[in-house]
Structures are given as structure tokens and as C-alpha cells.
């Protein structure tokens, strides 16, 4: 090939096709974040609530921008030279489902935040809070569409860095600062290990695009096999941290307790969606030929994670300060273990159809978990307005002072436990168990079944507490409209999915293959 021809090919590779409609969801969130940051300079102290409504409207607009993308898969930022067509951004069915989860979760967290910011006074600066939340949501919406490792890592950090600041944003709160520091240091360490893994993978394959990595890893030189294998293992570390898998879970309880409650709710759902979508992309799309490495590793991590999370939740004392938030934090660790099971099962799949079905089980479970866990945090935010220490014991007699809130929280807890009338929780757990059994992971299915039984105790204990006789005279308080809307939306969604759980299956067809 002549120098002129090589130059022409290089120039062709530099020409990136840009589909603005495809990148609209993360772009809208990012642009609204900048608008809020600038508007904060001109909005008076007594009118900061308008920034919240702008943020809610922006997240709703970002979610609505998914509608034009439903008809067909779209790709952008593509390299077309050299006879290849590799793209860095793809809006396929998997992307749209995760973006819906991320933007919907961020929207509900924003509704929770409005009453929290109002109650906090000057402790939480509104302009910075909304800018950070929207920035993190933009990164989270970008990640599931990323189809090269560079974009994937950038999206992961764009979603994470604002979250560190959100955790420690409360002024004069030592607990919040400590939580942010622990979250930041552990995350940076995990990111450094992941970047080393990505560099090893790039050295072994010569490419960063996920589909090309999958092809090159099948034909990697024998001398580079160990390097590639090490790179695959190290790359998984960062995503294991994001999903709070054992032993990368230690930051969760202190971070959730130290963060403002809406931020904890955001991390429990959107943070996990980011981690699991990235984990699915690097394992199933980029590293399928190394399934013998990540499949067994994720199976062991799933067993350890669900066991550690549920046992720690079981040991929480109901009278300890912030025990309700801690219980939800450890519960989220246990739920992360369940979510890992189908991804591990995909490593044992005989064909792409079986792998896609297994991954679809994780997506279906994540959708159920997002709705009911955000709802549980919303009721916790309601109780926390009058009971600042948010103990589990503070929920005793909640039915007497707020019947609808007690009924809704009871429903959410039963969904997480997988008991009727929380049919969607039962349906999701059966789907995950089926994925393990179909993959021949009978031992993992047994471990999960044992953990489901363990979790029944603390979920039912909390549920029963809601309907016991209250201590003292029940006092009723006015519930802010945004908080009411968040509770109502999650309740309607949970009830609708329990009535028609087959709706979840429509989203489990990921279209990754």
C-alpha cells in the first residue's frame, strides 16, 4: 500500500458519522445540567425550587427522546475505513431499556430531592446539587450505548465523579464527608485496576471496540494469552465495584447512610444499572471467548455477594440510628448477588440465544428492583422528615399515622422478598433461578434459594412492624407534592407489573447479538 493510500485510509477512519437523534438522551441531560448551572447564578435564594423543576423537566425530556429510537437500531461515531465498520455508540434495544431505567430512576430521585433540598435549608446548595445529579445521569445514560472500552470507561467516570460530590455535598456534616471520601478512594482504586486491565486487553488485541476485541481474542497469539487473560480479569474489577459485589462492597452501608437519602436511592438503582450494563457489555459482547474465566468468577461472586448482603441485613438492630437505611443498603448488596446470577449463567451458555436469554433475566430483574427499591427509599424519605435518625423501629405503627405509605412500603418489601402480592418480585426471582438451572449451575440456584429464605425474615419483620400498635399518639404530617408523586409513581408501576409481569419479558430481549 502506498503512503498516499495509507493516508487516505487514516483520513477515512477519522471521519466520524454523528447521529444526533441517537445521542439525544445523554445529550439532553447534559445540556439541561449546564442550563441549571448557569441559571443558578441568576435565580434568587428564595426561588431555587425552580431549578428542581427545570431538572425534572429535563430528565423527563431526556426519557421522552427515547421514543423516536424505538423503531430501529442506530449507531454513530463510526469508523468506516479499512473495510471495517466499528461504532463507538449504538442505540439498540439493550441501550434503550437501560437508558429508560437510568433516566426514570434519576427522575424519581429528582422528585425525592426537591423536598430534601427544601427541608435542608442552606446545608445543600441547590444549583450544585442539580448540576451534579444531571451530569451523573448523562454519564449513566451514555454507558449502555458505549461500544468501545475508551467510551465505556469515560462514561463510567462521568457517572461516578459527580456522585462522589453528591455524597459529600452536605455542608458541615462529618458523616457525609467521611462517606464521600471512602466512596472516592475505593472507586479510584478500582478504576485504576480496570484501566490497567483495559491496557492489557488493548495490547493483546490492538483495538478498543468491543466487537473487534471479541474477534481478536479468539485469535490472540499464544504468547499474549496470559496478558489477555489478566486484562479480562482486571477489567471486571471496576464493574464489580460499581455493582457492590463482594469483596468490593464495603463502601455501600456507610456511603448510603452519609449521603442525602435521594442520593442513596439514586446510587442503589442508577449506580447499579451503570455497573451491570457495563459488566454485561464487557463480558458477553467483548469477552465471550474468555467465558471460562469470567463465568465461574461471577458465579462465585454472586454466591458471596448475596450471602454477605443478606446475612449483614439480618444482623441489623432495629433501634440503631439509620438502621432503616443500612438495612436497605445491605439489602441492595444481596439483590446485586441475584442480579449477577444470570450474567454468570451466560458464561456457561452453549449458544448466543441462550446467553441473550440469560442476560435478559438480569435486565428484567433490574427493572423490577429499580421500581420497588426507589419506592422503598421514597417512603424512607417520608419517614425521615419527622424521624431524623430513620431507625427501623421508627416505622412501628406507620399504618396508624400514614395508612397509604405503610401499605405501599409493605408492598415494596414483599416485592423485594418475592412474596405475593408482590408478584413481580416472585416472577423476577423465578426468572433468575431458571437462568441458573438452565446453565447447569444447580449449586448456585440452591445458594440463591437459601438466601431468599434468609431475606424473608428481615423483610417480613419490617413489614409486620408497620402494622403494630404505635407507641404514643400518632401524629400526621403534610406530605410534599414531589414526594407524593414519587411514591405514587413507584406504587403504580409495581402494582401494574405485578398484575401483568409478562410486560417485563418484552424488555428482556436485549438485541445484543
Could you explain the architecture of this structure?
With 513 residues, the chain is mainly α. Helices cover 71% and strands 2% of the residues. The protein contains 20 helices and two strands. Strands 1-2 form a two-stranded antiparallel sheet. The model is unreliable at 3-8 (pLDDT under 50).
Tally the helices: what do you get? 20
Give the amount of beta strand, in percent: under 5%
Residue share in helices?
A: over 70%
Overall 3D shape: globular
Q: How far is the N terminus from the C terminus?
A: 34 Å
- Overall structural class, as computed from helix and strand content, comes to mainly alpha
Biggest sheet record: 2 strands, antiparallel
Question: Residue-averaged pLDDT, rounded?
Answer: 86
Q: Reading side by side through the largest sheet, how are the strands ordered?
A: 1-2
Uncertain residue ranges? 3-8
List the secondary-structure elements in sequence, H or E: HHHEEHHHHHHHHHHHHHHHHH
Q: Any idea what the radius of gyration is?
A: 23 Å
Strand count: 2
Amino acid at each position: 500500500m502506498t503512503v498516499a493510500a495509507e493516508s487516505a485510509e487514516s483520513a477515512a477512519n477519522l471521519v466520524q458519522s454523528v447521529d444526533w437523534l441517537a445521542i439525544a438522551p445523554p445529550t439532553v441531560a447534559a445540556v439541561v445540567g449546564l442550563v441549571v448551572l448557569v441559571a443558578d447564578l441568576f435565580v434568587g435564594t428564595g426561588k431555587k425550587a425552580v431549578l428542581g423543576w427545570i431538572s425534572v423537566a429535563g430528565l423527563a425530556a431526556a426519557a421522552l427522546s427515547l421514543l423516536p429510537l424505538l423503531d430501529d437500531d442506530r449507531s454513530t461515531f463510526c469508523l468506516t475505513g479499512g473495510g471495517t465498520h466499528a461504532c463507538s455508540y449504538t442505540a439498540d434495544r439493550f441501550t434503550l431499556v437501560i437508558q429508560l431505567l437510568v433516566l426514570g430512576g434519576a427522575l424519581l430521585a429528582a422528585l425525592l430531592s426537591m423536598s430534601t433540598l427544601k427541608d435542608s435549608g442552606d446545608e445543600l446548595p441547590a444549583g450544585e446539587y442539580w448540576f451534579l445529579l444531571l451530569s451523573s445521569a448523562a454519564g449513566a445514560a451514555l454507558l449502555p450505548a458505549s461500544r468501545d472500552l475508551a467510551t465505556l470507561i469515560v462514561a463510567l467516570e462521568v457517572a461516578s465523579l459527580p456522585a462522589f460530590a453528591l455524597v459529600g455535598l452536605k455542608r458541615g456534616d462529618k458523616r457525609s464527608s467521611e462517606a464521600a471520601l471512602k466512596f472516592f478512594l475505593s472507586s479510584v482504586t478500582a478504576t485504576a485496576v480496570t484501566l490497567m486491565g483495559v491496557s492489557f486487553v488493548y495490547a493483546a488485541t490492538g483495538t478498543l471496540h468491543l466487537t473487534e476485541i471479541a474477534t481478536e481474542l479468539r485469535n490472540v497469539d499464544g504468547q499474549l494469552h496470559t496478558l489477555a487473560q489478566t486484562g479480562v480479569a482486571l477489567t471486571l474489577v471496576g464493574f464489580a465495584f460499581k455493582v457492590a459485589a463482594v469483596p468490593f462492597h464495603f463502601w455501600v452501608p456507610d456511603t448510603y447512610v452519609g449521603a442525602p437519602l435521594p442520593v442513596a436511592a439514586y446510587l442503589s438503582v442508577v449506580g447499579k444499572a451503570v455497573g451491570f450494563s457495563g459488566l454485561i457489555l464487557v463480558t458477553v459482547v467483548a469477552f465471550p471467548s474468555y467465558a471460562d474465566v469470567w463465568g465461574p468468577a461471577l458465579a462465585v461472586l454472586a454466591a458471596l455477594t448475596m450471602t454477605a448482603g443478606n446475612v449483614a441485613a439480618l444482623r441489623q438492630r432495629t433501634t440503631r440510628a439509620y438502621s432503616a437505611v443500612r438495612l436497605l443498603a445491605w439489602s441492595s448488596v444481596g439483590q446485586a448477588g441475584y442480579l449477577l446470577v444470570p450474567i454468570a449463567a451466560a458464561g456457561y451458555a452453549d449458544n448466543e440465544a441462550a446467553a441473550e436469554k440469560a442476560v435478559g433475566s438480569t435486565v428484567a430483574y433490574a427493572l423490577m428492583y429499580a421500581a420497588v427499591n426507589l419506592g422503598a427509599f421514597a417512603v424512607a424519605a417520608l419517614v425521615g422528615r419527622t424521624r431524623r435518625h430513620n431507625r427501623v423501629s421508627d416505622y412501628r405503627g406507620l399504618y396508624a399515622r400514614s395508612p397509604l405509605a405503610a401499605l405501599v412500603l409493605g408492598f415494596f418489601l414483599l416485592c423485594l422478598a418475592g412474596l405475593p402480592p408482590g408478584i413481580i418480585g416472585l416472577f423476577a426471582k423465578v426468572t433468575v433461578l431458571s437462568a441458573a438451572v438452565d446453565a447447569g449451575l444447580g449449586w448456585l440456584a440452591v445458594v440463591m434459594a437459601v438466601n431468599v429464605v434468609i431475606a424473608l425474615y428481615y423483610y417480613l419483620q419490617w413489614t409486620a412492624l408497620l402494622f403494630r400498635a404505635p407507641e404514643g399518639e400518632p401524629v400526621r404530617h403534610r406530605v410534599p407534592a414531589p414526594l407524593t408523586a414519587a411514591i405514587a409513581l413507584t406504587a403504580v408501576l409495581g402494582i401494574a407489573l405485578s398484575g401483568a409481569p409478562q410486560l417485563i419479558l418484552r424488555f428482556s430481549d436485549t438485541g445484543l447479538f
